[in-house]
Amino acid sequence: QVQVVESGGGLVQAGGSLTLTCTVSGLSFFTNYAMGWFRQSPGKAREGISCITYTGGHTYYTATVKGRFTASRDNANRSHYLRMNSLKPEDTAMYFCAASQSAGCGESWFQLQRYRHWGQGTQVTVSS
Prior knowledge:
By secondary structure, this protein is mainly beta. It has strands at residues 3-7, 10-13, 18-25, 35-40, 47-52, 59-61, 69-74, 79-84, 93-100, 115-118, 122-127.
């Protein structure tokens, strides 16, 4: 059974930084799949933040986080990370990690249906 577990969320002041960690177990050939980060605020739809290809060679970001957030992965440890800098109050949300159904991200990397396995999320709260 595949398990996706996020950690690292918390309360931080605006301008601060956090690093989220996602660990995946039970997924054969973790290295074969792209990984994504998503977030969801109360009353809003879940949105794609980033996608990283199976090798980690390519990353994609939504415009609102580009230049501030960095996705990375450690295939040996089946882990996926999101380094978040210059955090803003509008970054407050539940953050989710997800394993894609394919190795690449593609033009529609931000679409939820491209991802098969999801974690329960970790809360990030940015105070002003």
